[in-house]
Amino acid sequence: MTTTFCVSGAVLDKAGASRNTALDIDQTAMDRFVNQAESKINVACRYNFTDNYASLNDDVKRILEDTASSLAAMNVIAYDMSGYTSRGEAESMINVLRDGVLMNISILRDKKAQDFINAA
User: Fold this and answer.
1) Domain, as residue range, for 72
2) Considering Cα of 29, then 57, then 62, then 106, what sign does the dihedral take?
3) Would you say residue 34 lies in a domain?
4) Which of 20, 73, 76, 114 could bridge to 14 as Cys pair (CB 3.0-4.6 Å)?
């Protein structure tokens, strides 16, 4: 599988040091998490950023990277919460990531942002 918006390292960084390190070497799982994130972003925004990625400006690419890595990191954390100091810690990390995702999706869906994206 090919990923477009982010690399697995960005996902692992956001999942934190307490993540299940077996996923560090399971590139198939990481790619699947990132591909799922990319699809969610495209559908939520009603725009196929993946197909048009090369034509996007760097500002938009960084928002997509942040959003995709956060969505994928949520899956990494949920995959195995046993390494975190508590389930509450893992859930708090997921909540922080989710808040960033919601803000980024809101920005990408905003009409003024879409004009900016399409002007690139």
Assistant:
1) 8-119
2) negative
3) yes
4) 73
55-77 pLDDT tens trace:
998 999 999 999 999 999 999 99
The pLDDT mean for the chain works out to: 92
Q: In this structure, is the dihedral angle defined by the CA atoms of residues 63, 52, 109 and 99, taken in order, positive or negative?
A: negative
d(CA 45, CA 61): 14
pLDDT (mean) for 83-109: 96
Of 45, 52, 46, residue with least CA distance to 108? 45
Residue in this structure with the two tokens 């997509």, named with its chain if needed:
64
Mean pLDDT of 8-27: 91
Number of folded domains that form the chain: 1
